[in-house]
Design goal:
19% strand, 11 helices, alpha+beta, 298 residues, seven-stranded mixed β-sheet
Length: 298
Amino acid sequence: MGTYEDKLYAIPLSVNVRSLLTRRDYWQGDSWTVEDILSVLEESNEIEGLFVDIGGVDEYFYNMYFMIGMDIMRSPFMKDGNSGFDCQEFRELLVTIKNMTHNAYNNSRPDDRMLPLTDGNYLGTECLITTMKGFCNIFEKMGENANLVGYPSDMGSSHYLQEAGMLVVNQNAMGKEGVRELVNDLLGLESQKHVGYAISVRKDIPEAQLIYDKSSNAYIWTASAGNGFLLPAKADGSSYLEEYMQLLLNAEPASFASDELFDMVMEEANGYFSSDKSLDEVVDIIQNRVQLYLDERK
């Protein structure tokens, strides 16, 4: 994060976490693959739709992006740096996305993006976690049935960090010592306690700001100004701090290096989704275009 070609250009001051949420009665595991999702959908008679994005949208683009686009180079359809889209699994994926997009009743509301999952027939919803309160609210609403499983990956659970504020310093700036002091201050404990509606980049912030209030028998997220907010607790009265920290530690910076490649795949997939081209035609075009793209960059 903040790097380009292994060189540091910016320092993140705060982040958010993007992930996919499903129900444990749909999928028990802590991670899943494209193959797992296709199997769940084949076995379920209840699920009618795939995913709803953080804006409440059910579209071909987002369903495709969530399945393979977050990091297409690590998708199951890239084989040792070569195009591997000409396979049965990719064909099944395209058919599934075409058949299940717009198929379920989308009851998503700005005040409750989980409704298509909790009170509808969707497989999952995308979550943008900006505070521990938002994280706790998921489990308060869904209880033990909540499964923040992440995006499908063959390499384990995939939750992604996206920057919510970056510091960039001109390399020709005068007063390097002053710059160093500024960076140290912005990343210091007291400054990071002021981060609002985003997640601090310091690992010690959650434990430093979470307190248990005996008088109200509740957990409170405190802020430097003295205010804060109540946090939902588990049924046994304990906090979600351990689960929250685990999510943050497992999250990795989102990669946008392969967005150009995903856009190419999506451009051709739209020909099948719109019924302008056959499935085999589209798969053949994607296989060849991706291989040509990769060959030109070797």
